[in-house]
Structures are given as C-alpha cells and as structure tokens.
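Table S7 (text form). Paired inputs.
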Amino acid sequence: MSRDSAKSPYARQPYDPPEAYITPERAYASVDVIYDDIERTRGAVVSDFGAMGDGYTDDTVAIQNAINTAGIGATIVFPAGIYVVSSPIVPLKGQILTGAHTPRYQPDQYSDSVCQIKATTGFSGAGVVLASATAYGVRLENLAIVGPGTAAVAKVHGVYFGAHGLCPGERGWLLRDMSIYACSGGGVSGHMWVVDIRDTHIVQCGWGILVEGDDAILDVRITGSQIYFCRHGGIVVDSSRRSGAVSIAQTRVERSGGRYGLPGSPLDFSAPGIRFTNAMTVDLVGVTTDANTGVGLDLDKRSGGVLFSIVATACEFIRDGGGDQLGTTQQPGVRIRNASHIVFTSNNVLYGAADDGGATPLLSPAYGVELEGATQCFIATSRLDVATDPFINGLRLVGAENYGNRFELTAQGLST
C-alpha cells in the first residue's frame, strides 16, 4: 500500500461537515508517522549487504553487517540460498531472522534445503546462531541451520543460548518452522529461560536438545517438533541446576543413537529419547519416542538433584532400549529411578524391532516400565507390552526401596 492510498479514506468530501474531528491534515500526519515507523523497522535483506548464498563464499561478515545495520527489532530476510558461515551469527534484541525454508521429515541428507545457514568444516564458535546476553525476544523462522558435522572435535551447537553464568536472564526466543542438522553439539543448547520451539526438525546432531553443566531449561515449550537420528540423545536435560516449567507436546523423538540405513549398527548403545535428571513440573502430552537405543523416557535423578512432579499422559514409547541390537545391552522403555510424584497415565509402552524391514529381529524394550527407588508415583490406565514374559517384564521393580506407588487399570501383555 502506498502513502497516498493509505491517506485516501481521510480525504475531505463535499458532504463532510466543517466540524469533522479528523481533518485531512491530522490524518496525513498520522499516516506519515505510521509509514516512517514501518520503513524504519522493515529491516534488511542479507543479499543487499553482499551475502552471496552460493554455497562457497563466506557470508559471515555480510550477514552480521545486515543484522547490525538494520538494528533492534528489525526483520532480516534470507532469500533462497546456501549461506556459508565460519563463525557465529549474533542477532540483536527483538529481531526476526526469516528465510524460505520449509521443514520436512528428511533423515538421510539435508543438502536440498532451499535456504541454509551452513557452517564451514573449520567453523570457530559455540553455535551457528549465538544468543548474546542482551538479545531478548528474537525469532528464527523458516531457516535451515547446518552444522559442521557430528564428527567435529569441538561441540558446535545449532542455536546456542550461552551458559548460565553469561546469560542468566529470560530469553523470550521463538524457533518456528526450522530445521537444524549435523551439529556436533546440540541442535539447541545452553541455558534456556522462556524459549518456544515449534514445528522444528532437529536431525543427525550430537543431541537434539542438550542442557548440561550449570545450565537449566525453564519455562520452555517444545511443540509439534521432530527430533531424529541424533547420536547421543534426543532431549537430554542433565545438569546441576534444577529445571522446571517445561512442556513437551505433540513431539516425536526417534532413533537416537541409531545410524540411518544401518539399524543393526548403532553409534551409541544407550542414547535416550528424553532424559531428565534434575527437574520438577515437567509435562509430556502426546509425545512419541521410537526406536531410541537407550530408554525412551528416562527419569533418573542425579546425585544432589531433585526429580518430582513430572506428568506423562497420552504418550507412546515404542521399540526403545534396543542397545547394541545384539541383546546384551537392552534397556526398559520407561525408567523412573530415585524420583517421586511421577504421574504416568493413558500411555502405551510397545515393543517391536528397530528395523521396519526386519533385518534386525531383536525386539525391544526388554521391560516396559522399570521403577527403582521410586516413591509416591502413580501409573494408571496404561498398556505395557514387551515381547518376552509380558506379565513379568511389563512392569519391573528393582531393589527394595520402592514405596507408596500406585498402579491402577494398567494392562501388561497383549493377552490382557
């Protein structure tokens, strides 16, 4: 819309009374202010700053110049292309980085994405996109972030929020319609406080979402996303700082530790689907884990931590815990260890072979739900199916310190 067309509804008509409150002069002035503000915050197109997007030229400086020049609150547009970077891209407060990428399930390769920010093999930095301490309220959308590969010596994360000591405050970031590939660290990692991850695919990274050290995940929502073929785990929250207020909904985590096309030769024999070791108030709704080499849902309190008030409902945990696929390192589908007040309702734990084609016939999990040192947990209206002795192995109690737990209307085995 042009300035003139925006002003036209306020043009004085012959039949307008002379005492009309909105005069043409006032209307024109208002529209000028609005359009000046729109033009100021419209932002920048990275190609206008010299970014080539040809898959060869190092576009790091050009992209950062576009970000810095556009300023706070601007939109940074990435036209279709492969933008090679050798060091982190650092957005400013309130910016929107947007491209032409559409995420889809693509476990085998990633080179055909039409809009990539791709790290060089010699990339230097903790993350391809780095959140600075002052960059609140950033949005990343419709972009593919490609790391240097999982074989990189140092951990390179896709989006890195920094350590708690450097970035302790709220982030207010939104990742939407993204794909993150081939990062040696986590697809998303660091200390995350107020972060939303929606409709995003994280593929063939070291971890899908990784929280470790002194970091935590607080007031975070992961919705409608898919995490698959990550080498060491899907969503792994294993840190000394307590996490909480986390919601994971309608999200699928599959084949952690597995190798695409070679299900009988996993890369990591104990890569969990979802793991929490020090957390409270976590909700899982409509979540699926499938064929992860480790435990599908692993609630395993670490020393010095806490683990309570976690709810899983309407979830499926399928074919997890296959380990090395040789039968020597099998694990349960769900594990609750040294935790309390865990609510597990209306879920399915199902068995099968990790390979849909039947080349690896091992059926997993070995146990449906395993409890060890669990107190005041509630397991109800769920189905626990395992291949061998389902009435014995559907629910497994380890040790003598499980107490105060309740089991109601939970079926073990296909014949029940």
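Next pair, protein 2 of 2.
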Amino acid sequence: MHMFGVVSRALFGYVKSGLLQDVDVWQGPLEEVTSKITAAIRACDQWILATTDLTTTDWPRTRWKGNYTDKQLTSLRKRLNDILAIRSVFEEIVALIGVTDYERFGLDRAFKGFNDVAVLNVGPFSEPQWKSATREFDRKLAPSEQHVAFVIKSRMFALAEHPQLLVGEFNKFKQLLLRPTVSAELEAEKETLLGQLIAFLEDLRAEFENRAYTKGKNFSEFISAIIWSHQLIDKVKQTSDIVNRVMANTTNLSVFQNTASDIQHQLQMFARQQHKSWQEEVLEALEDTRSDLVLKTDGDLMDLDMQNDGNLVVHYSQRLVTLTREIRQLSELGYKIPTKVEDAVNAGAKHYRYAVQLKGVANFYNTMTEQIIPSQMGMLLMEAQEFEKVVKNNSGTTWDRADEVAEYMAELTT
C-alpha cells in the first residue's frame, strides 16, 4: 500500500504543479483549459484503474482488504471534472447570450467567488470554501438561465422537422441542459424531441432491414456492408449518448433505450457475420496458388498482351490492392486480422508503391488513343515505340529484384 501511496502523491503533485501549474482555469482560452484538464483527468483515471486492477484481479486478493483507492487523488479527479463542467456551462451560456447582454446578466462577474479559492486544493478543510464558491456561481448564473432557455426553445422550434440537427444542438449545450432551471423550462420540448428520435431509430431499422447500402468503389461487398453498418451504429450511439445525458426524466426514455439497444445489437451481429464471411473468402483464396491474392514475386512486372488487344498488363492484382485497403479499414474499426491475411498483404505491400505507379502508366498507355487528339498522334508515335521497346527489354524484371524494379520505373517515367 505504501508504494501506491507514494505514486499517488507523486501523480497528485504532477497534476497540480506540472500539467496545470500555469493554467488559468476560469479566464484562460477554453481549448487550452479543456485540453490540459482532460489530460489531467486521463492521468488520474489510468492510475486509479491500474490500482483497482492490481488489487482486485492481478494480485492475490488475500493480500488486500478490498481494492486500493487514494481518496485525495479521487477527490482531485472529481474537482477537475467539476471545474470543466462549470467552465463549459459558462461558455455555453455566453455563446447563446451574445456580447450585448454579457454584462447585463452579470456574466463578467460570474467567477468572482472563486478568486480566493485554491481550486486544486482538495480535502475536508477546503471543501466548504469550494462549495460556497460554486453556490455563488450558481446564483450569478440564475438570471441568464431563464433567458438562454428561451433562446434554446426558439432554436429547437426552428429545427423541429430535423431531429438529427436538434441532437447536434443539444450536444452543443449538453452542460447547460443539465442545469435544473433550463431542463425544467425545456421539459415539453424534450418529450417531443424524444418521440421524433424514436421514429428516427425506426427509420434506421428499416434502412438496415432493407440493406440500403451501396458497394464501395474500392471495397468488396462484405467490407462495404461492414462500413455501412458501423456508420449506422455510430448514429445510434451518438443519439443515445445525448439522450441518456440530458433526457433522464422523459416519459418514453425506456422505449428509446430499448429500441436503440435492439437496433445496435442487430447491426453488430450483422457486421460480425459480414466480417466472418469476408475472412472465410479471403483465407480460401489464399489457399489457392492460382488466386490473384497470391503475388508471384518471380513473375514479370508487366508486359504487352500481344495475343489479344495489345494492352499493357501489370501483373499485380487489383484485388491485392483492394485487400490492402480493406485490412486498413477493418483495423481502424477494431477487427482482428488473421495472421495469414496480414502476411499476404505485407508481402504485396513491399511492391505496392511501384504497382500503383505501374498501373497509372499502363492506364495511360492503354487509353492513349482516347485521350490524344488525332493531329498529335503522329508526334507521339516515336515516343510510344520507344516506350514499348523499354517494356520488351525489361521483360525479365521481376518483383523480387528490388534494384531492377527501381531502375525500370525510372526508365519508364523519363
């Protein structure tokens, strides 16, 4: 326990004298204050979580009487949260009040009660002073709260037919909407909006059931479906987050929550099934040595298909290019990629840059007659012949000869 106490004290001191030493939490730029306080909260959270895990899970429980909690660090974390909430609600009011009414509502004196309070000092002796200052802050804000409630009500009326835009408005003023006065004034509007959002969720359900997605240009059908389902999941989560935060006492909250939970579960199951199908298809293709997912590193980079249309063909599968993009996208979404698939992509990735360049060269060559006006064709005939000569002379250049590939590319593009 002594070790935990030492680290907790050190972290406490670092937050106060390091991270937040020169931060004016009341008058400093909001972005800077928010960034610094958020970083401090994150640091506290990481240590609190670490000590909880160590004393309840990782180490034998017989050595501990419950999980370790540093009361001072926990109090500091709560204080930081409170400061952030106070500063945020003030800024939200200012955004709605405007410059002309700033002094009329006494907002220039809103933080006066904190002048003599060392806000980062936490403990039983400093708590009464902190509570007194927050009560004074609440009193100073009271005259403006009725006014901003009316302003928000007007904005909600203007967006009545667009529930998603209303959610965005609620998100802008999420701290303000938790204030008792403002929340009470907007009770009817919140009930109306919740009904609209339940209908919005049902529209999302219908979109999902109709599989109303479009296959992406650079992705397979499975990946397109996964991306689409995650977009819908994000919409449900974003809507749920703000509803759960500011509509706690609305009549149909449980209806909304159940609907959101059900839709989100369906979408997650669908995404997992699509990922499984994609994985099975790719692994099966990798088992086949003739598959275009298996890069033949000892084969030519490209050649002229003289037996058919004479087009320039790059021997680097477009499916391998697509697979590289798909893996990147799936990783960003948190999916685990099988080692065999990663190995195949890594093998192809070594040559990906040159493959993309070669495909660009080949595409220009193959469509040259469509892009160049007839009067210029004669001028370019000699250059085209020289180009073809370079391709034929390098017919033995393969992907596994890195130096030769680089020289070949230089020769083609000069």
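The first strand starts at residue 302 and ends at 304.
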